[in-house]
Amino acid sequence: MAIEIERKFLIKGDAWRDQVRTKQRFRQAYLSTSDISSVRVRIADERQAWISIKTSYHGISRDEFEYPIPVADAHQLIQLRESEIIEKNRYTVAFAGLTWEIDEFAGSSAGLIIAEVELEDEVQAVALPKWIGREVTGERRYQNSQLAQHPFRAWRTEVAQD
């Protein structure tokens, strides 16, 4: 078991694109989502797949169990999903000694771009790049499990992409 400690932010502009180190295409679906946990199947670039169980957040931390599975199994499991498939490109950008993961959503959440940074502990100081906008850590609607149930297209007019 691992503990995931992360902060999430909206993105301002496109300046981050010049700093991209890697890009992966993800398709993922949720087999179960509740107030205490979620079960996700993810496929990366049609070459790797995982099943993940994540607990609900305690502050900015949560337990995460993640295991590799065959891609063919992941395709079958995705058919058992309870909501929409999440499609996104994930880019990595290095800044001030940390790796930022930037998710650019497609499909029903197209137009949403979120940057995440994983931390060693909850009080770790984080230098923010200039392209970072409003922090959305703790705002449930920005969690992937929630986007699968309530895609960005349904509520995008309610928020500004700072």
Structure commentary:
An eight-stranded antiparallel barrel has the order 1-5-4-3-2-6-7-8. The chain is mainly beta and 162 residues long. The chain starts with a strand and ends in a 7-residue tail after the last helix. It contains three helices and nine strands. The chain has helices at residues 71-78, 144-149, 152-155; strands at residues 2-11, 20-33, 37-44, 48-55, 61-68, 86-95, 98-105, 113-118, 132-135.
How would you concisely characterize the structure shown here?
The chain is mainly β. It has helices at residues 71-78, 144-149, 152-155, and strands spanning 2-11, 20-33, 37-44, 48-55, 61-68, 86-95, 98-105, 113-118, 132-135. The protein contains three helices and nine strands, in the order βββββαββββαα.
List the defining traits of the structure above:
162 residues; mainly beta; eight-stranded antiparallel beta barrel
Topology:
Layout: E1 2-11, E2 20-33, E3 37-44, E4 48-55, E5 61-68, H1 71-78, E6 86-95, E7 98-105, E8 113-118, E9 132-135, H2 144-149, H3 152-155
Antiparallel strand pairs: 1-5, 1-8, 1-9, 2-3, 2-6, 3-4, 4-5, 6-7, 7-8
Shape: globular
Distance linking N and C termini: 35 Å
Mean pLDDT: 95
Rounded radius of gyration (Å): 15 Å
Q: Total strand count, please?
A: 9
Count of separate DSSP helical elements: 3
Helix content: 10-25%
Largest pleated sheet: 8 strands, antiparallel, barrel
Q: What share of residues are in beta strands?
A: over 45%
Strand order of the largest sheet: 1-5-4-3-2-6-7-8
Ranges with pLDDT <50 over ≥5 residues? none
Alpha-beta classification: mainly beta
Order of helices and strands: EEEEEHEEEEHH
